[in-house]
Design brief:
- The protein has 235 residues and is an alpha+beta fold.
- It has two domains: 87 residues; 144 residues, no CATH class.
- Helix content is 54%, strand content 26%.
- It has a four-stranded antiparallel β-sheet, with helices on one face. A three-stranded antiparallel β-sheet has the order 1-7-6.
- β4 and β5 form a beta hairpin.
- α1 crosses α2 and α2 packs across α3.
- It is elongated, with a radius of gyration of 43 Å.
Amino acid sequence: MSENKYDLNKISKIKNGIKDALNLSEKEPQVNMKERDFYRELDKKKNNRNCSLPMVGLLLLIIFILIIYFLVYIKNYTKIGIDYIAQNRSETQESLQSDFIDNTKELLPGETLLLEYSEVDVSGYLGIYDEDFPLKRSSLRIEERGIIVSGRTSDNWYSLPVHTVVRPKIDGGQLTFVLDELASGAISLPKGIRDNVSQYLVRLMKTRALYDAELEVVSAYTSKEKLIIEVSKKG
């Protein structure tokens, strides 16, 4: 009887051992699956990150190339405009004067004529691209408040930016140009530089008068991109 009991206990332990082994074998695949999923997700993120780095590098390279292209384009475009006017400034100056004479010589006494001149015409006439002009790398634009001439005090990188406002003025029936404003943004120009630029511009404007003994300049004003002069033939 005791032997049978011993055998039953032994058989029961064996069954329990087999059951535990089966349960363990069922759990192991689940654990292994979770680990595999974890490492697979980790590898995916790593691969995505590795792929994104070349894309960021390529994007930065494209942006850099576009910036270089833009700067070169602007420089060349500006240089072409300056070279064109600089090479033709004497012709432009003479053409404005000759245009003034040609358009007014057929006027009859008492008649008036309205003449319009562009920014290119006025730039050449005022000589802002001449070598002895006090402002370097200068440019001109025309607005309602006057003729705005911008430039720098020298060609050096540390030079000061300057802008002036020149207005057309009628003096004794002839057209002259006067310096109305001289500034350097929020910076106060040194007195020596201000006086030098101012005196030169004042002298220059006086030499740029349009005058004919038989004509009278009735009015002169500026609008967007144009200088407009009204001329009358004396009776």
